[in-house]
Design goal:
The chain is an alpha+beta fold and 535 residues long. The chain folds into three domains: 249 residues, Endonuclease/exonuclease/phosphatase (Deoxyribonuclease I, Chain A), CATH 3.60.10.10; 49 residues; 141 residues, no CATH class. It is built from twelve helices and 18 strands. The chain has a seven-stranded mixed sheet with strand order 1-7-8-9-10-14-11, with helices on one face. Helix 1 links the parallel strand 2 and strand 3. Helix 3 crosses helix 7 and helix 6 packs across helix 7. The protein is extended, with a radius of gyration of 35 Å.
Length: 535
C-alpha cells in the first residue's frame, strides 16, 4: 500500500501572517518521538489529550506509532495543528498504524507526504528558503515476528530512505534493542544505551551503517529514567526500543535527546524528545541582525565588533554557559616509573583491542559477503583508498634531481630518443639471430622442459622465470618469458618512481606472457616488443 498525499485545508489556514523577521527562512525544529504499544488500543478518543500534551511540551513535530487508525489521510486537529496518518485498509482489522502531528506554524511548510504502509509514513517539509527536510515515522515489527515480515519492512524502509531528500529524520518505535557501542558499530551507537542487543537491533544497526545514520539517544548521558523509553511496571520490564535517527552530518546540531516522563496518555512508552539548538541559534542571530540593522553602518572594524558581540550574547542566551576547571590534580604516588609502566600496559591493551576489533570486523564482513552483499560492498567501497600518485621529479643523466616541469619533459625526450635509437640498432641483430635460430639452433622440446622442472627441489623460491616444481608447465606454442628487470637503462620505466613503476611492470609482464611467440625464441627478440607494448 503506497499512497501520495494531497493537502486540503481551509483557505485561511495558509494565509501568511505579517513577519518582519527572517524566522520563516530559518526556523527552529525540535523533533520528538512518542510511541504507543500494547496498552494503547487506538488513537481514537485521545486526540484532544495528545494535542494538549503536544502544546504543553512545546513541540513542533510529533511522531506517534500504533495508532490503530485505518486508511490514510491528513486531518486538522484542534487549534489548527495537522495530523498525517497511515494505517491498514478499512476492511481489515485495526492494527499497527503511524502518524505525524505538525504544529500549526509549520503547516504551510508541508510539501508532500506519502503513506508507504501501516508501518512507514513519510512527510516532506520545505521552508521559504527551499530548505528540504524529510521526516519518516516508523513502527517496526516485533522481535518474534517472522523473518519474511522483518525483511519486507527493512527493504521498504531502505527504499524510502534512499529516495528521501534534504535532511533526514527517522523516528518511532523500532522494537529493536541496539545495546551499546562496540568496535563494529561505534560510529552509529553511543555508550549510553542498554546492555541488551537483539536480532531487530542488529538489523537496525546494519541499516544505519548502510545509510550513514546515527542513533541519537544513545549518545547523551542521563539517568536511567531518562534513557528507557518503554516500561511495563506489572512485569518489571524496561527497555530502549524508541529511537531518533539522523544523518551523521546533522548530529552536531543536536545538543540533547532524552525521555520526558511528564506527558501522560496511558501508554507504556514515554516521550522521547530531541533538542536541536543549531537552527534556534541561527534564527536568533538573524532576528538580532535584522533588528539591529545599524550593524551594517560603519567601517569594517566596527561592523566586526558589533557582529561579534551579537554572536556571543546570543550564544549565551540560547546555548548557556558552563564552568571549566583547569586545575590539575597532583598526587605523590604518580611517579615516572608508574607512568612508564602504565603506558606500556595501555599500549599492550590497545594492540590487543585493535587486533580483536579487526577480527570481529573481518568476521562481520565475511558474514555480510554471504548474507548481505549490499552492505558488504557499501562498507568495502568506503574503505577503498582514493589516493593518487604523480611523478613530481626525475633524475638527470648525471644523477641530479630535476623538479622543473620543462626540465622533466626534456629529460624524458632525451631518454626515449636514446632508448629508441638503441632499439633501431638492435633490429638487425635480432633478425640475424632469428635466422640463425631457424637454421642452426636446436629448439628445446616440451618433454625436456618437463624433465627439468621435475628435477627442481620442493619448497625453493622460483627464479626470474617464476617456475616452481609444483607450477604448471607452459602450454605448447607458448614460451615462458622471464621477468624483465627495469632497474637499469633498458626502458622508460626506470625514470618512474617505485609506486608508479611497479604496476606498469606487472602490466608489461602480463602483456608479454599473453603474446603468441615461437618455441625457443630468445629473450632479446621478446624485449624488442617492449616499445610497441608501451606505445
Amino acid at each position: 500500500m503506497e499512497e501520495n498525499g494531497t493537502l486540503s485545508f481551509p483557505d485561511d489556514l495558509f494565509k501568511k501572517k505579517p513577519n518582519n523577521t527572517l524566522k520563516n527562512s530559518v526556523y527552529t525544529r525540535d523533533l520528538r518521538s512518542e510511541s504507543h504499544q500494547h496498552l494503547v488500543q487506538s488513537i481514537h478518543g485521545k486526540e484532544k489529550e495528545i494535542v494538549e500534551e503536544f502544546e504543553h511540551a512545546d513541540l513542533e513535530i510529533l511522531a506517534i506509532t500504533e495508532t490503530k487508525k485505518k486508511s490514510v489521510g491528513i486531518t486538522e486537529l484542534e487549534n489548527g495543528h495537522v495530523l498525517v496518518f497511515s494505517g491498514v485498509h478499512k476492511e481489515k482489522r485495526a492494527a499497527a498504524g503511524v502518524g505525524c502531528i505538525i504544529h500549526k506554524k509549520m503547516v504551510q511548510q508541508i510539501n508532500n507526504w506519502k503513506a508507504w504502509s501501516e508501518r512507514i509514513l513519510e512527510v516532506r517539509l520545505k521552508d521559504e528558503g527551499s530548505h528540504q527536510k524529510t521526516v519518516i515515522v516508523v513502527y517496526g515489527p516485533n522481535e518474534d515476528d517472522r523473518a519474511e515480515c522483518k525483511d519486507q519492512f527493512w527493504e521498504k524502509l531502505t527504499k524510502v530512505t534512499e529516495e528521501a531528500k534534504g535532511e533526514i529524520y527517522i523516528a518511532g518505535d523500532f522494537n529493536s534493542r541496539v545495546g551499546k557501542g562496540d568496535h563494529i558499530y561505534r560510529t552509529i551507537v553511543g555508550e549510553q544505551g542498554e546492555n541488551v542487543r537483539n536480532n531487530n537491533g542488529i538489523r537496525l544497526l546494519d541499516f544505519c551503517l548502510m545509510h550513514n545514520l546515527v542513533i541519537t539517544n544513545t549518545y547523551f548521558k542521563h539517568k536511567d529514567i531518562h534513557k528507557y523509553t518503554r516500561e511495563e511496571r506489572s512485569r518489571g520490564e524496561k527497555s530502549i526500543i524508541d529511537y531518533i535517527l539522523v544523518q551523521r552530518s546533522n548530529m552536531r546540531r543536536i545538543v540533547d535527546v532524552k525521555v520526558q516522563r511528564g506527558p501522560e496518555i496511558y501508554s507504556d512508552h514515554y516521550l522521547l524528545a530531541e533538542k536541536n539548538i543549531a537552527e534556534k541559534f541561527e534564527g536568533a542571530i538573524e532576528q538580532r541582525i535584522e533588528k539591529d540593522i545599524e550593524i551594517l553602518n560603519g567601517n569594517i572594524e566596527e561592523i566586526w565588533n558589533k557582529f561579534k558581540d551579537i554572536v556571543i550574547e546570543t550564544a549565551k542566551q540560547e546555548c548557556g554557559t558552563c564552568k571549566k576547571d583547569n586545575r590539575k590534580k597532583q598526587t605523590v604516588w604518580w611517579t615516572e616509573k608508574i607512568k612508564e609502566h602504565e603506558r606500556k600496559r595501555v599500549k599492550d591493551l590497545v594492540l590487543e583491542s585493535k587486533k580483536k576489533a579487526w577480527e570481529e570486523f573481518g568476521n562481520k564482513m565475511e558474514e555480510n559477503s554471504k548474507n548481505n552483499q549490499k552492505l558488504f560492498y557499501t562498507v568495502l567501497k568506503s574503505l577503498r583508498s582514493t589516493e593518487t600518485y604523480s611523478t613530481l621529479h626525475v633524475k638527470s643523466k648525471n644523477g641530479d634531481t630535476l623538479t622543473d616541469e620543462k626540465d622533466i619533459m626534456a629529460r624524458w625526450r632525451e631518454y626515449f630518443e636514446e632508448l629508441l635509437k638503441a632499439s633501431e640498432n638492435m633490429e638487425t641483430n635480432v633478425q640475424s639471430e632469428l635466422r640463425v635460430l631457424e637454421e642452426n639452433e636446436e629448439v628445446i622440446t616440451l618433454e625436456e622442459l618437463k624433465e627439468t622442472i621435475k628435477d627442481l627441489k620442493n619448497g625453493k623460491a622460483p627464479g626470474e622465470d617464476k617456475i616452481t616444481r609444483n607450477g604448471k608447465s607452459p602450454r605448447r606454442g607458448e614460451a615462458h618469458l622471464p621477468t624483465i628487470c627495469f632497474c637499469g637503462n633498458c626502458s622508460g620505466i626506470a625514470l618512474i618512481g617505485l609506486k608508479t613503476g611497479a604496476p606498469l611492470c606487472t602490466m608489461l609482464d602480463m602483456s608479454l606472457l599473453k603474446r603468441e611467440v615461437t618455441d625457443g625464441l630468445s629473450v632479446l627478440a621478446n624485449i624488442k616488443a617492449v616499445p610497441r607494448i608501451l606505445q
